[in-house]
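TICKET: design request
STATUS: open
ATTACHED STRUCTURE:
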């Protein structure tokens, strides 16, 4: 066997003996991180939908549970508040009411929700003013995406001699209708 053949076999053996098992281990680690993130998101969203509100403590517990996976995340909150708007042929004249209502949704997003949960003042964390309240019939959802490159992504990029276009390995969208107003 020539020199180049031996080098090729040595490189192939290193890949099979070391990198492939490491790659599989990191893939399983991403699977576990996904499951933990999914559990954290579903628990947080279901609790918010069941209670009809979010507290700073509940949000902090949710973020801390996500961080246990060892990844950093982009968390997007969305709340759609249901509004009933009366239908008029002439909005300036109340006598033109058509005896029907349009259902519209007003959207509130992460920045607006965070401004209520964590205002720029010294209110205590358990203050009623720091509860983000929702109504029955509203929709609340959370989208969680990892921001960092996981070890599985790094190894895969190395084995493929490339750079993956997206670092996203963990993406959890979850939400639903608010069922209660327990405030």
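STATUS: resolved
RESOLUTION: sequence designed for all positions
ATTACHED SEQUENCE:
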């Amino acid at each position: 066997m020539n020199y180049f053949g031996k080098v090729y076999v040595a490189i192939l053996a290193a890949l099979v003996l070391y990198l492939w098992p490491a790659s599989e281990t990191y893939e399983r680690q991403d699977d576990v991180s996904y499951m933990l993130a999914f559990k954290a998101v579903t628990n947080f969203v279901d609790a918010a939908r069941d209670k009809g509100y979010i507290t700073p403590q509940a949000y902090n517990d949710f973020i801390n549970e996500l961080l246990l996976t060892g990844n950093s995340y982009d968390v997007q909150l969305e709340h759609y508040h249901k509004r009933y708007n009366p239908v008029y042929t002439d909005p300036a004249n109340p006598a033109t009411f058509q005896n029907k209502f349009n259902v519209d949704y007003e959207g509130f997003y992460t920045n607006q929700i965070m401004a209520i949960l964590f205002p720029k003042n010294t209110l205590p964390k358990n203050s009623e003013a720091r509860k983000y309240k929702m109504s029955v019939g509203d929709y609340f959802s959370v989208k969680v995406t990892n921001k960092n490159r996981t070890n599985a992504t790094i190894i895969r990029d190395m084995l493929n001699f490339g750079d993956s276009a997206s670092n996203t390995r963990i993406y959890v969208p979850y939400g639903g209708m608010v069922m209660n107003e327990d405030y």
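CLOSING REMARK: The radius of gyration is 25 Å. The first strand starts at residue 53 and ends at 54.
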